[in-house]
Amino acid sequence: MAAPPRRTVALHVEGIANAEKTLAATLRQLSGVDVVTIDISANLTTIRLLDGCALTEQDLVTAIETFDRHHLTAYVVQPLAPPVAPVTASCTVTLTIVGMMCNSCANSVETALRQTNGVVTAVVNYATESAFVKFCTETVGIRSLVEVVEGIGYEASVATGSTTAATIVNRTVELAAWKRRVVLALVFTLPIVLIMTLMDAMPSMIMGLDSPVFGLGGSSWDSLIIFLLATPVQFVAAAKFHREAFKGARNRILGMAFLVSMGTNAAYLYGLFAMILAIYYANASFNQPDMFMTSTMLVAFVVVGKTLEAFAKGQTSEALRKLFDLQAKVATMMVKDTAG
Q1: In order along the chain (340 residues), what is the average pLDDT of each group of 10 residues?
Q2: Which residues cross the membrane (predicted)?
Q3: In the chain, which segments carry CATH 3.30.70.100?
Q4: Which residue, 166, 192, 298, 322, has fewest beta-carbon neighbours within 10 Å?
């Protein structure tokens, strides 16, 4: 005959606080007792019995109430069943994210999605500009997920078959925009570098550029020319960084755009402040034209890097498009009958 299954008995015991250790030791000495667990805060004693143990719940109650030197009251309680997780319907969706400029942006989008009530998991890929989200349909919807992304300053839409083609077009347009920024940045930055180099290496070739502008004390033609060349780079070529930095700061997201904007603006504004100070005190030594060169060169380097990145993304998208074009449009299923 098979032994009865192992049992676990839960008992509510009043007055157990002063007898916890000694009661546990006494119960463990009973024949057939395997494990004794006492929860003082709930006045609950849980006893696991070995297989084939002949002890009954009443035997355990009697053993506790007749415990030496203590007056305890015990009765059997129904052990709490483990909580059962509610069964909810889940769904997955892929979102196309527009406006991310670095991995920090992707991390911000991913964090915002994961913190949304009802989202089970979210993974954002900066390279493919997409987000894979698994969510509970009873708690949150796709429209809400899109609004979460848009709420932190990015554009989002549900990825579909037509989205792939649209993404390729968008990346082509994006690459063209970055190319225009590169041309603008280099056209105005290279003359600044040339002037600054000649001022240090061959000052005789630019003789007269250090003279005052129309006799205005503290000013100089070289500082004015460099200032005029740096301004389009700072506020046209780098305009996208300033816009993204403003949106990021408004949503407490400090990514690459914020760093570029802050760094270039700090250098540019310091150079402008030095120009004004030189004119105010009629002292040309206060001029700091190298600050304008710093801001323009930084913008030029970053814009060139972003252009190369956009080019690489475009090449990847084109390769994926060609790969998708290779998939079969029609499939024929052949079924083998009894005749072979």
Answers
A1: 60 74 80 80 78 80 72 64 52 86 84 88 84 86 88 82 62 86 94 83 65 82 92 94 86 84 95 92 88 94 91 72 67 67
A2: 182-203, 223-241, 253-280, 292-312
A3: 8-76, 90-160
A4: 322
